[in-house]
């Protein structure tokens, strides 16, 4: 056993030497790169009059190209969202969605129908609101989504009302579910700034009949 250990020591020393040499090489390369960068900055500063026309010409080509690529990318993203919305335009597919996918789906319905500044918050600490947006007439809207099979109870409506009275004061509330609301939940929303969208209303919304917000 002692001989075996003695034979392994030179290999360990060789590995340590290799690692040390590699570290020194990396440090040397980093120093050279830093010197090259400093030299480039000094050279550009000393020859600014000659360099500036080239930089300006390059920017004149690069900026419009970048803007065009950004427009194309946004159009592609919008096309993908519309395709995904159509591909899932039935309640059977919605029933199979996880909760976060349902929130994204509702957000896409809002975008399709002219809502702007649509942001999906979601998560366990969403403060009772999954989506915030602006209605077509400019009002702030806070949306809560529940992709449930069981009916939505009254305390969920009260939680949304609490959010509208605190962190989302001044917002119109919309509560969307793939199920239905209990009688007490409907009573809790009665006369409040919360619009209830149950399964039947959601089906109509998918068919381009969005829920009406309360009058101003």
Automatic annotation (TrEMBL):
Q: Restriction endonuclease type IV Mrr domain spans which residues?
A: 94-206
Q: Name one GO molecular function term.
A: restriction endodeoxyribonuclease activity
The residues forming a coiled coil are none
What the entry lists under InterPro entries is as follows: Restrct_endonuc-II-like (IPR011335), Restrct_endonuc_IV_Mrr (IPR007560), tRNA_endonuc-like_dom_sf (IPR011856), Type_IV_Methyl-Rstrct_Enzyme (IPR052906)
Q: Which UniProt keywords apply?
A: Membrane, Transmembrane, Transmembrane helix
Q: Which Pfam families match?
A: Mrr_cat
The biological processes this protein is annotated with in GO are: DNA restriction-modification system
Q: Where are the transmembrane segments?
A: 21-45, 51-73
Protein name per UniProt: Restriction system protein
Species of provenance? Allonocardiopsis opalescens
